[in-house]
Specification:
Layout: H1 12-16, E1 22-26, E2 32-36, H2 46-50, E3 64-70, H3 73-78, H4 84-94, E4 98-104, E5 110-115, H5 137-146, E6 151-155, H6 157-167, E7 174-179, H7 187-201, E8 205-212, E9 221-226, E10 231-235, H8 240-246, E11 269-273, H9 277-280, E12 291-295, H10 298-307, E13 311-316, H11 318-321, H12 325-328, H13 338-346, H14 351-356, H15 362-379
Bound molecules: flavin-adenine dinucleotide.
């Protein structure tokens, strides 16, 4: 029985098992965890050794931080931040490479897929604020690498850590980019939310954008389009799913004990939103999306240099570009009502009722404030 805060659901253990006795199974909260068939297990302990939590070696030792955005306005518009992912991905595809990233499947659940053309990159573009299913991405990456194809693997820090442990070898042709993730919400809550939306509109969903920029990058909207041409387009702070995500009430337990934050990271490059850029570098802010880019390795530097002509770019300091410790290096705090929240989930309560769990009592608010102050002090 594993401690849930020590499992990021990366699937490395299930793929490394020589007798295939580990299956990823969904728990009551909707997250995937390895389940071992003890009758088949040969006790080789490969699954324990491959686990990135506690076993990870990071050889990167230097970082350089930049602020930038893609000069291609159409792609930037469709990207969550400054469209940096698309530039790195196009560069890989131009070299006959393969790009792995998070896409919606036919039911709008989120999974990791491989694409080989620039047209298909639109599937990966844009943040999907749900933990993505990795399925058999790791063995597929390995196959492409062994066939001498360049591979760009993009995802959360824990997904990249799991991949590196699974491969157990430095491949010259592997490039990795992680997003500045603060935590991944439960796929079960996402499914419940979508079911409610489909019932409300009584129509199938055709398109979803978590980060529609029609009213600006900072004031982005959640946009859901239905088959009968109606649309639900609402500012992120009014949307219930985003409220639960940003309130940190429906995140995977391991996100509250994240081992993959801090810099330099295990990935070659880290990308995120450059929130607060209007104060720090106002000339880099036109409210269409600006990214923070952290180069963690020589390959990260190579990727950035290859696309520099397509970017508006400035060098920055890491501390100024990412002033919030919970983004840069510390895990986000567990919401005090998380247990109550998931009890309501089990009872099948409505999204409105789940959202009500976000309200904190006075004592909880005071405790959160004290913890926040200590966290800020610890980060200084
Ligand atoms: C769950 C999550 C939490 C995040 N939290 C923060 C945060 O707190 N602060 C911050 O600055 N930035 C955060 N980001 C990153 C930010 O939202 C953008 O993804 C990032 O800035 C890249 O933007 P882009 O414009 O370059 O590319 P885009 O085209 O917008 O992003 C595409 C990239 O995001 C990846 N991606 C999308 N959804 C997922 C997913 N569910 N799991 C893994 N990878 C995914 C794709 O594989 C691709 O690499 C988060 C992203 C995710 C997915």
């Amino acid at each position: 029985m594993i401690n849930k805060k020590d499992c990021c659901g990366c699937t490395a253990c299930s793929h490394i098992c020589p007798v295939k006795c580990i299956e990823m199974k969904e728990d009551k909260e909707g997250f995937l965890y390895p389940a071992v068939d003890n009758e088949k297990c040969i006790h080789c302990h490969k699954c324990e050794r491959v686990c990135p939590i506690g076993n990870l070696i990071n050889y990167n030792n230097e970082t350089k931080t930049f602020i930038g955005y893609n000069k291609n306005e159409a792609i930037r518009e469709k990207s969550s931040s400054g469209g940096i992912f698309s530039l790195a991905a196009e560069w890989i595809i131009e070299q006959n490479g393969v790009v792995f990233g998070a896409a919606f499947d036919e039911d709008f659940e989120v999974c990791q897929i491989a694409v080989e053309t620039k047209e298909e990159l639109s599937k990966l573009r844009g943040s999907k604020y749900v933990q993505s299913r990795l399925e058999d991405a790791y063995p597929k990456v390995q196959q492409y690498l062994e066939n001498n194809r360049k591979v760009l693997f993009t995802g959360t820090g824990c997904q990249i850590a799991g991949l590196k442990k699974y491969l157990n070898k430095d491949y010259e042709n592997l490039y990795t980019v992680d997003v500045l993730c603060h935590g991944v919400p439960s796929p079960k809550i996402w499914k419940m939310y979508l079911e409610e939306k489909k019932k409300q509109y009584n129509a199938p969903i055709q398109k979803i954008e978590f980060r529609n920029k029609e009213s600006g990058w900072k004031n982005f909207s959640v946009n859901i389009e239905f088959a009968d041409n109606r649309r639900y387009c609402i500012k992120f702070y009014e949307d219930k799913f985003m409220q639960m995500f940003l309130g940190n009430i429906d995140l995977r337990p391991s996100c509250h004990n994240c081992r993959f934050k801090g810099f330099p990271r295990i990935s070659d490059m880290t990308i995120g939103d450059s929130w607060g850029i209007e104060n720090y570098m106002p000339d880099m802010d036109d409210d269409r999306g600006t990214s923070v880019i952290v180069v963690n390795s020589l390959k990260g530097k190579q990727m950035l240099e290859a696309v520099v002509g397509s970017l508006n770019l400035k060098e920055a300091s890491l501390d100024k570009a990412l002033p919030k410790a919970e983004i840069r290096k510390q895990s986000v705090e567990i919401h005090p009502n998380r247990v109550k929240f998931f009890k309501c989930v089990e009872k099948g309560e409505s999204i409105d009722a789940l959202c009500a769990c976000l309200s904190k009592s006075l004592i909880q608010k005071v405790l959160s404030l004290i913890r926040y102050i200590f966290m800020r002090l610890g980060a200084l």
